[in-house]
Each structure stands twice: as structure tokens, then as C-alpha cells.
Amino acid sequence: MTEQVTRLFDPKQPEPTITDVGPTFIEVARNIAQICATRILLMIAVLAGSGIWVWTIADPSRDRLYAAIAFSVVFLGPLTALYARKG
After folding, report:
1. Would you say residue 1 lies in a domain?
2. Cα(70)–Cα(53) distance, rounded to whole angstroms?
3. What is the spatial distance between Cα 17 and Cα 15, in angstroms, rounded to a whole number?
4. Structural domain harbouring 63
5. Cα gap 19→27, rounded to integer Å
6. pTM higher than 0.70, yes or no?
7. Is 76 helix (H, G, I), strand (E, B) or coil?
8. Between 86 and which of 4, 6, 24, 38 could a Cys-Cys bridge form, CB atoms 3.0 to 4.6 Å apart?
């Protein structure tokens, strides 16, 4: 019943064994990487869209408004759908 508990940043970490890294571990790591990549793309698009909308609000001309709407539809729409699908 004695279990060894290792702290996360303890300098003496146990060495991983071959059984620790298997196909399921690699599959989980790939899935996590895909989720992170999807969320980063969405974050970049949202930041760029926010910048375009701030630029539009600073001088609300008709052309800037059309550019902001086009950006939102072309970039944010598909990325939001991708985010909802990938979770």
C-alpha cells in the first residue's frame, strides 16, 4: 500500500519505461496537438478580426466596414466552424 509520490518539478524524476510510451500515448499527444493548433488559429483570427474592427471604428468609412465584414465572414466563420467540430 506504500506508493511513491513524485512532485512535478522534483529534480529526481523517475525514468520512463518502454511501457509508459505506447501507441495510445502517441495518439493522445497527436489529438492534443490538433486541438491546440485549432485553438491557436482561431485565436490569431479573432485578434486580427478585432484589429480590423478597431481600425473600422476609428474611421467608419463604407470601405472599411465592408472590409471588416468580409474578413469576419471569410476567416472567422470557417475557423469558428472548425473550432466547434474539433472541440
Report:
1. no
2. 11
3. 6
4. 42-87
5. 15
6. no
7. helix
8. 38
